[in-house]
Amino acid sequence: EAGVAQSPRYKIIEKRQSVAFWCNPISGHATLYWYQQILGQGPKLLIQFQNNGVVDDSQLPKDRFSAERLKGVDSTLKIQPAKLEDSAVYLCASSPIRRPSSGRYNEQFFGPGTRLTVL
Amino acid sequence: DQQVKQNSPSLSVQEGRISILNCDYTNSMFDYFLWYKKYPAEGPTFLISISSIKDKNEDGRFTVFLNKSAKHLSLHIVPSQPGDSAVYFCAASARSGYALNFGKGTSLLVTP
């Protein structure tokens, strides 16, 4: 099956500019996540969708970040305006609704990420 | 606050030997624990996971051990191969379908 697709793969912008990232999850996966991975750190959740509804956006800096998943399939994440500290890899992941007895507990499938550099 | 901790930033092991990667957590509500492997310029890929009701799970060369009383888990790779060289992330979540809390990762280098 096709994996999680993300674009662009790389983006360089000046601070105070805006940027948008796109994610297409694995077909049939109801849950979609956006994670931010700063250099030297592990991924950190920004927002989680179940179909087209938001499950958790408690760590999303809502003054500058926004995300949507209008038809319960693909999703966009936007930053406006960008700051230097937003330089990171933005990872999209998706997961099916799977019973824990499968043994692959809470497995999430990650895309290749978008590396953002803010100058 | 970092709820999942990987205190060893790097580890070097000879090919054929055992690699042991460690992870500690602080949140007693975590039910599922996962290990992900990451190569440069790629997203993390799932390796193995374990539920809090078990203390061991094995998949080929990879075994994960969970010590709930110590809030500690470890990943054993036997035998280690050069292709195992990557960054390994420990992750945990409270329930299935919940977001993952990641550690900072351990960079494993397997030398021939």
If you had to describe this structure to a student in words, what would you say it looks like?
The complex is a heterodimer of chains A (119) and B (112). With 119 residues, chain A is mainly β. Chain A starts with a strand and ends with a strand. In chain A, strands 2, 4, 5, 6, 9, 10 and 11 form a seven-stranded mixed beta sheet that branches. Chain A has a four-stranded antiparallel beta sheet with strand order 1-3-8-7, with no helix packed on it. In chain A, 0% of the residues lie in helices and 46% in strands. Chain A has no helices and eleven strands. Chain A is globular and about 45 Å long. By secondary structure, chain B is mainly β. Helices cover 0% and strands 54% of the residues of chain B. Chain B contains no helices and eleven strands. Chain B has strands at residues 4-5, 10-14, 19-25, 32-38, 45-51, 56-59, 62-67, 72-77, 86-93, 101-102, 106-111. In chain B, the strands form two sheets. In chain B, strands 2, 4, 5, 9, 10 and 11 form a six-stranded mixed beta sheet that branches. Chain B starts with a strand and ends with a strand. The model of chain B has no long low-confidence stretch (mean pLDDT 95). The interface between A and B is medium-sized, with 30 and 29 residues.
